[in-house]
Amino acid sequence: MIRRTVSFLDERTGGAPLFRKALRYLFPDNWSFLLGEVALYAFVVLVATGVYLTLFFDPSTAPTVYHGSYEPLRGSEMTRAYQSVVDISFKVKAGLLIRQTHHWAADVFIAAIVLHLMRIFFTGAFRKPRDLTYYIGLTMLLFAILEGYLGYSLADDLLSGMGLAIGYAVLMSVPFVGANLALLVWGAPFPGDPAFWSRMYIAHVFILPVLIGALVGVHLLLVAARHHTQFRSARASERVVVGVPTFPGQTPRSLGLFSAVAAVLFLMGGLIQINPIWLWGPFHVAQATNGAQPDWYLGWLIGALRLMPSFDVTVGNYTLVPNPFWGGALFPLIVFAFLFSWPWLERRFTGDHAFHNLLDRPRDSPWRTAIGMAVLTWVFIVFVAGSADRVYVFVGLSYNAQLWAYRILAWVIPLLVLLAAKRICEELRAGDRVEADRKAAEAAG
Amino acid sequence: MSRLKDWAFSAFVLFLGRKPKRPVVERERLVAAGALEPRAELAVLALFGAAALCAVAFVVVYALDRLPAQTQLLGLTLGLSFGFLAAALILIAKRLVVTEELEEPYPVPAHPEEREEVVQMVEESGSRFTRKRLVTLAGAAAGTALTVALVTPAVSLGPVIDTDSFYRTPWRRGRRLVDEAGNPLTAAEIEQDVFYTAFPEGADRELIGSPLVVVRLDPGELELPSDREGWAPEGVLAYSKICTHAACAIALYRKPLFPPAHEPRPALICPCHYSTFDPASGGTVIYGPAGRPLPQLPLVVENGELRAGGNFSGPVGPSWWGVRMGKAKP
Q1: Alpha-carbon span A326 to B245, nearest angstrom
Q2: How far does A316 lie from chain B, in Å, by closest CA?
Q3: A379, A300 Cβ separation under 8 angstroms
Q4: Contacts of B62 (CB under 8 A, 6+ apart)
Q5: What whole-number distance in Å separates Cα of residue A147 and Cα of residue A39?
Q6: How many CB pairs under 8 A join A and B?
Q7: Does residue B1 carry a pLDDT above 80?
Q8: Closest CA to A281 of A363, A158, A181
Q9: A84-104: per-residue pLDDT in tens?
Q10: Which of A66, A186, B146, B249 can pair with A192 through a Cys bridge, CB separation 3.0 to 4.6 Å?
Q11: Virtual CA dihedral for A107, A109, A114, A116, nearest 10 degrees?
């Protein structure tokens, strides 16, 4: 049976040498190498659950009145889009499970990408010959954030409408061309032309998923072409890769990880409520609610928008920089510009243009680790600042005092982290050297 | 009956013996052998069985109507099914297939000969051109022009150049204010310490130029700019309900009701980023990130009903490059 299948495929594709190579492709073993795989499997769950949801979702702003089974909304005016999401939640059997799993999968997907990125950054895995792989990964992160934002915007509940209003204001705030870009995307001033819903929908269910899928393909091909990185060991070196072959060693591990990711996502989707849109109600331009928080991956932008003091930069009557630009556009631009330019910056300042198949431990490159930690802390403090209103409600700490604290801490703490991280790395390296000397002396003695 | 048994038995024997057994060839192993692990194998069987049972349970839960907590049970059965599958696979990986750590050289970093050949082939292919740069330039020009042409239809997505629509609102002199039920608002029903949402009568409510927040303050407390005299009859004030920072609706009204309150002035607050506007002084920003006052709508009272006395004091909604270059207009 196995022989027949392999013969069949080989005679029609000439692929036997490739199959042989693929079965013996080596995967170096380290837990942190699984983070990217987790992201990949979350993406698979997203596509599968997403396709199911499109079979029921209606991306239309046509007005309608709800007469379904959920009592509190009966008689409410809403769009077909919102109504179809309420129906997916209450009328379609297993609909709520799939919807919640889809939403959780999106949160896990982006979390896994961010953790994977941190692993790649702090171990220097982005260095030549894998810098192209790294840029593609960053691009996928950008697309994933946009994809998630569009996903929860489509539901047209109160929170999604508030999120869209903020996105619209940020686009409007782009110097010189903001208003024109907003008209191009929304088709008319907020809440926009009905066609805007078609645009969001095709972007969310087709354009972005296809782009992400294609980039996933290129990303994996590039990884395979240059093979995995690995940590230094007695056997592993710049020239020799040591690892478990695809088959039989890695295959059950990867399938097991996929099953584990799916298990966690479906358990979360069934047992942990997320985005109960029937409680938020349909969006109307004249409504907003207090205590609204976006999905976690946009928390840093909410924090940045709230931290900015009140001013628009004006030149005469011309508004050069409307306020939301700083937090909503410039801040993420700086963070992504840093990430995209880091491989180049590092080459420039270290003069290191060599091939690297061995990974650094974070301590091996104190400046990279220190700067990376500082930027991470900066983004994290701004992220936490986004929750100041909730902290006020739960703990009673003055919102204003918190904001001022964050405005100062966002600059001071990264600096302290920078110095501390650099020092710790250097101490650890010194410790390593002492240890190596002792071993050498013992061996000699 | 016994004949039938005989027939079945002979058929079974024939079936067993239909093929000669392939002789076992001893050959060198490619995958290392390992010790047998019958207990692990048994555990894997049990885990596969549990995964199948949970999957069947999912179908049963799906088929049963009107179960309490159906979503939770569906998630639990499906999640556990995947969970058991994961456990079985990881047990297979750890105990039943051999985990060999093999070595292999990394792919060579570069192929200088092939690289040189590629360069040479490309360079030599152009040898019949005498004006290579000009041809390249012309080709690039054609490509650029064609790209621009292909992108041009995207301009239809929005009016792009014509930003006039940002200044427009449905308000004009004499238009009545109505509440959410569509009933005209009267000045008498506007009480202090509460805020009201109002819309233009007979206009689309889902435009950012439409919704108003209406409050009543003590006329003695008002400090409106000098050019807004008479905009707040009897101390009733109307402002755009859309925050000038990020277009969320002003949904909070801070009205200190007792003396030790930290902020003595009533304020209109947007819950998205806590931009805070002072209704007494014409909607000026007193806190938060908004860079521009809340546009005020002049009011008049006719037969006790509230009507617009004109258009807003400035464009409604979030700021853009031209927000200070024009006035709100109908």
Answers
A1: 12
A2: 9
A3: yes
A4: A93, A94, B74
A5: 14
A6: 291
A7: no
A8: A158
A9: 999 999 999 999 999 999 999
A10: A186
A11: 150
Using one digit for the tens of pLDDT, what is the confidence trace for A366-385?
999 999 999 999 999 999 99
The whole-angstrom distance between A250's CA and the closest CA on chain B is 7
Shortest Cα–Cα distance, A263 to chain B (Å): 4
Judging by DSSP bridges, how do beta strands A313-315 and B299-302 pair with one another? unpaired
Residue A215, amino acid = L
Query: Is A404 within 8 Å of chain B by CB?
Result: no
Q: How close is the nearest chain B Cα to the Cα of A381, in Å?
A: 17
Q: From CA B237, how far away is CA B198, in angstroms rounded?
A: 11
User: What Å distances lie between residue A170 and A174, A304, A414, B189, CA to CA?
Assistant: 7, 12, 26, 38
Is the pLDDT at B262 greater than 60? The verdict is: no
Task: Please tell me the pTM assigned to this model.
Answer: 0.94
Structure tokens at A148: 């998630």
CA angle B171, B297, A308 (to 5 degrees): 110
Residues within 8 A of A (CB atoms), B 167-196 only: 168
pLDDT for residue B33: 85
Burial tier of A50 (Cβ tally within 10 Å: 0-12, 13-18, 19+): buried
CB-based contact (8 Å) between B70 and chain A?
A: yes
Structure tokens at A267: 């358990």
Task: Work out the mean pLDDT of chain B and round it to a whole number.
Answer: 92
CA pair distance B278, B287, nearest whole angstrom:
9
Parallel, antiparallel, or unpaired: how do β-strands B177-178 and B196-200 relate? antiparallel
Average pLDDT of chain A, as a whole number: 96
Q: Return the C-alpha torsion angle A213, A215, A220, A221, nearest 10.
A: 120
Q: What angle do CA A289, A293, A298 make, to 5 degrees?
A: 135
The residues facing A245 across adjacent strands are A26
Cβ distance of A166 and B75 shorter than 8 Å: no
Residue B115 CA: distances (Å) to CA of A223, B121, B122, B126, B175:
21, 10, 11, 18, 75
Residue A97 with chain B: CB contacts under 8 Å: 71, 74-75, 78
- The CA-based dihedral angle spanning residues A435, A440, A443, A444, taken in that order and rounded to the nearest 10 degrees: -140
pLDDT tens-digit readout, B52-85: 999 999 999 999 987 888 999 999 999 999 999 9
The 10s digit of each residue's pLDDT in B186-222 is 999 999 989 999 999 999 999 999 999 999 999 998 9
Query: Helix/strand/coil (H, E, C) string of B130-154?
Result: CCHHHHHHHHHHHHHHHHHHHHHHH
- ipTM > 0.85? yes
Residue B324 contacts A where some CB pair is shorter than 8 Å: yes
A226/B166 CB distance under 8 A: no
Q: Which helix (H) or strand (E) holds A26?
A: strand A26-27
